[in-house]
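Task: encode each sequence below as structure tokens.

Item 1
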Amino acid sequence: MLIAITAATGQLGRLVVEQLKSQVPTDQLVALVRTPAKATDLGIPVREADYSRPETLAAALAGVDTLLLISSSEIGQRAAQHRNVIEAARQNGVKHIVYTSLLHADVSELSLADEHRATEEILKSAGIPYTLLRNGWYTENYTNSIAGALAGGAFVGSAQEGRISSAARADFAAAAVAVLTSPGHEGKTYELAGDDSYTLAELAAEVSRQTGRDLPYRDLPQADYAAALAGFGLPEGLAQAIAGWDVAAAHGALFDESRQLSRLIGHPTTPLATTVAAALR
């Protein structure tokens, strides 16, 4: 059986490849990447596969049995890019597609959800058995901001008291590996989130505890938070999007207490304190 991993040089893709290599012979794995020269360190065969260039996808998917389709990072282009991959998979006889979607994509008010919903519909009409991994937020989405928060003296956001059930990126990689290497997942949808939840104020308190500094959380109106992000140098559109995601979090879009992720991977998800400590090292 040949397992292909798209976006294999991305942050999630690399973790998936590393975990797969401990369970699957490397000659049964193939990395699908836009720039093969950047994938020479993966330790598995590499094929060129550009979501936006369908002519690269037929050869990339030749002989593939199971495909992990890691969602594109190009917001606004995702649905069309994913359609290209799914159509190439159909034409090449791929037997199972595992797709990294978004937590509660069918009902989520996150702006990101639209393209995931569209992709899920494309998958449903493609006639290929599929599994939906509806990934929640990566804890690293927040811990990557710790340095800036410490420099500025506060965490800022617009999430109010919304609870966030995030997990470490490695936990989501482990979920993908579990589905890719065990039977019985076809037709299933997994809502994947951390075992525990926190508010941004509680995140700030954890960083304060570990650093010995007083780092408060400052909640801002959506427009003010977007303006602050733009002031930090983010493009206007991205700043608006991030602020909107925080507002969605305030309404519960990033909360889930089903613990499907820890059941799927067979162990508790990584605690917030652990990911914070890793970011501070």
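Item 2
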Amino acid sequence: MKIAITGSTGQLGRLVVDKLKGKVSPENIVALARSQEKAAGLGVEVREADYDNPETLQPALAGIDTLLLISSSEVGKRAAQHKNVIQAAQQTGVKWIVYTSLLHADNSSLSLAAEHLATEKALSEAGIPFTLLRNSWYTENYTGSIAGALAGGAFLGSAGDGKIASATRDDYAEAAVAVLTSAGQQGRTYELAGDEAYTLSDLAAEVSKQTGKNIPYKNLPEKDYAAALSSFGLPEGLAQAIAGWDVAASKNDLYDDGHQLSSLIGRPTTRLSTVVAEALKTG
């Protein structure tokens, strides 16, 4: 059984390929990437696969039994890109697609949800058995801001007291591998989130504890947070999107207490304190 992974050169994709090699013979793993050079060193077969160039997708999926469709990083282009991949999977006889969607995509207020729902609809119409891994936020999305918070003396955001049940990329990669390598997974939908929910005030408190500095969380109106992000050099559209995602987090759109992720990986998800310590160590 050959398993292909899209987005294999991305942060999540690389982790999946590496972990999958511990469960499946590397000769049965195919890394799909726009740039074959970037995929060098993965230790598996690499095939060119450009979401925006359907001509590359059929050859890339030839002989593939199972496809892990890791969602594209290009917000606004995802639905069309994913549809190209799904159509190529139909044409080449892929037998099962596992897709990384968004936590509670069917009722989330996150602006990202629409493209994930469009992809889920395309999968349901394609006639190929599929499994949905609806991932919550990466903890690294927030711990990546620690350096800036330390420099500025505060964490900024618009998430209020919203509970965030995030997990690490490593946790989600392990879950994907668990699904890809176990029986009875077709047709399932997993709502994947961390065991430990926290607010951004909790995150600020953890950073303060580990650094010995007083780093408070300052909650801002959405427009003010977007303006602050723009002042730090982020493109205006991205700044507005990030602020909007925080507002969604304030509504608990990134919270789930079903513990499906830890059940899949057979261990507790990585603790916030551990990820904070790692972020501080790596700078």
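Check on item 2: The mean pLDDT is 96. Residues 78-92 form the longest helix (15 residues).
End of task.
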